[in-house]
Amino acid sequence: MKKQLSEFLKIAFGVLLASIGLKVFLLPNGFLDGGVTGIAILLSELFDFNISILLIGVSFPFLIMSWFTLSQRITIKSILAILSLAIVLHFENFTPVTDDKLLISIFGGLFLGGGIGLTIKNGAVLDGSEILGVFANKQFGFSIGKVVLVFNIILFSITAITISIETAMYSTLTFLVTAKIIDLTIEGFEDYVGLMIVSEKSDLIEKELIEVVKTGTTLYRGAKGFGKRGSRNESDIIHTVINRIDIRRTYNLIDRIDQNAFIIEFDVNTIKGGIRKEYLNKEHMKTLLPNWKTNS
Q1: Domain-embedded: residue 176
Q2: Is 58 helix (H, G, I), strand (E, B) or coil?
Q3: What does the radius of gyration of the chain's CA atoms come to, in whole angstroms?
Q4: Is pLDDT of 142 > 60?
Q5: Which of these, 26, 49, 138, 233, is most buried using a 10 Å CB contact count?
């Protein structure tokens, strides 16, 4: 019960952030975001119709998709989130704070992305384009990211034709900022990468990774392989995950031990448990901040 209450409070805060991004920055200046929200804004600009009603109407078919594609629980929470956003937009009377188009695009995207990201992180959806992506992926095997990208290319192309190219360009900037902030909100600010290391000196490399970089490692037994030095028999393969801040230091460490080491680097989207270095926790922040900050 406590967890559910926490989720709904966070969704409510996400709705508030999104409404600030829309009402303070984007709507007064006719700027769009991507996705379903962008469609509602575009229709509102073209036909001078109430944005709250349009938001509910445009979201409805995507919520039906969500009912069959995702889950009933997510759909119900999404309906409540979208209705809340529509109500807040209707009654909210925030005053625009700037008429600088670049600031409008950046800060509008920042608030909107933070709101959408916080909502998604707590099990609801404020924008239906992601639902369309999941639906197309399940039905036709299309990539979710490509579906969302094509959706927004069409939207911004229509904006360029019906309103202006300049508005479409600023709206594209807003969308890019929104997308990045959504990622940061969902995945956090700590950025990790995975490394797979094949070396004849794997024992020394593993020792240094543990003692110097202070990360965890997993060893796989490589049965056989072929590389620059011809055929190879059994060897240990190191698998580890490190903070991106440590990437240069880790490569230098490996080069000092074995310049011929074979390294595969890959992105890590989600990580849970294990040993890893976090730079944004309290202990590491103390080492990064000046002494007068930590002693105050």
Answers
A1: yes
A2: helix
A3: 24
A4: yes
A5: 26
